[in-house]
Design brief:
By secondary structure, the protein is α/β, with parallel strands linked by helices. It has eleven helices and ten strands.
Length: 268
Amino acid sequence: MSVYKNDKPEYLKQAIDSISIEQSLKPDEIVLVVDGPVPESLNIMIQNLSKALSSLKVIPLKENVGLGKALNIGMEHVSNELVARMDSDDISLSDRFEKQLPFMIENKDIAVCGGQMSEFIDHPDNIVGYRYVPLTFDECRKYYRDRDPLNHVTVMMRKSAVMEAGNYLPWHLDEDTYLWGRILEKGFKIANINDVLVNVRVGKEMYARRGGWKYFKSDVGILKWKLNHGLTDKPRFLYNYIVRFSVQVLMPNRLRSFVFKKLLRKNS
């Protein structure tokens, strides 16, 4: 998990509680990368959590390096082969690890296992939608041509596979997409289980962040990378280019929000 100056202390506590004291199968290590200086209130919360949890390993960075580099550093500090990913403002369901760990033990050919996710606004019980992803490796590889086949905050990964693929690398808002592509390129398999594993905090600002030229250029860069590395073809590239330009550049935030909620998510 990575945390930075704009994260709220109470959200961080909820997130860490959800993967520690509230988990039916508790992790023996939680790596928290503090991405640069943070406000005093957040720093106090981190200190309090560190005192309460012997499993919490805090990695402070002197300056903000961005999510990709922060996760890269975090992976370097992970002690175990199996490592789960989590955001600092989301909530893992209490049986998440109890479901993922057996899957990874039984399916040793799978390098990354994700799951389904719910989305909420303001309060965890106010679920407004779900993002479902395909289950099998073949389905996931095909899905990658268009969209991420893994919900990033739900994944459990084999560290050895991640490191062989080059670890997390910076790519604005697409660090995970870039990693999944390099993992597939190395011949590793990915899959999902058919259970909701994480409840993700969303809001109007999320859809605003998914629009604009900067986001579009980043996405197009990933599309070109997929094409150049044989992970998509020209017809799919052109289709995705047109769709992303329409949604991310031409649409106002309100309409983009409607598209994400009604077309790219399942209603609760």
